[in-house]
Specification:
CATH superfamily: Hypothetical protein af1432
Helix content: over 70%
Shape: globular
CATH topology: Hypothetical protein af1432
Distance between the termini: 32 Å
Number of domains: 1
Order of helices and strands: HHHHHHHHH
Low-confidence stretches: none
Number of strands: 0
Number of helices: 9
CATH architecture: Orthogonal Bundle
Mean pLDDT: 94
Length: 167
């Protein structure tokens, strides 16, 4: 059922293929981390929807504030996300997705595995897109990464060490 949200996200972003591709990469990492971390189906749905909509506030932030800064994305994103989600999902799912969209750059508000996975997936993509140095990526990983899988992805990308197998 996330296909509707996927199509609506693409439609909303229009011809901004870099934003669409960013979102799809975050979605891919979020799904991979969620699967490997063995989250519940309900959490997995929230993670998928949150990943597809996490940056949905960017166009409106740019239009209203001439900036795509994280605080403006968080401010503008939930109302757009709510329109896209409609009433297709349980109320608790919608509320949680809107919370993630409205706080995904506010790392002190991380309050669950779904939020943690979204943040890690977004960092993995942002670090790559910003061509971050190994040192910067590892500092971010040390400060913000908590899942075994997210840490392993970071190791694969930025360290010469072997990935630690999940137990």
């Amino acid at each position: 059922m996330t296909n509707h949200v996927l199509y609506e996200m693409i439609r909303y972003f229009g011809n901004d293929t870099s934003l669409i591709n960013h979102t799809l990469k975050v979605y891919g990492f979020a799904c991979a981390i969620a699967e490997e971390e063995d989250v519940s189906e309900d959490f997995e749905k929230v993670i998928q929807l949150g990943a597809l909509l996490h940056d949905i506030g960017v166009p409106e932030a740019i239009r209203k504030h001439q900036s795509a800064a994280g605080n403006f994305q968080e401010q503008e994103g939930p109302s757009v996300a709510k329109q896209i989600l409609g009433e297709r999902y349980p109320k608790e799912t919608i509320e949680r997705v809107l919370y993630l969209v409205g706080n995904h750059h506010s790392y002190s508000k991380i309050d669950g595995m779904d939020f943690q996975i979204l943040v890690e997936a977004d960092f993995l993509v942002n670090l790559d897109e910003a061509k971050s140095s190994r040192g910067e990526a590892l500092r971010v990983g040390e400060k913000y990464f908590r899942t075994h899988t997210g840490k392993n992805f970071l190791r694969l990308f930025y360290e010469d060490t072997q990935v630690i197998a999940q137990e």
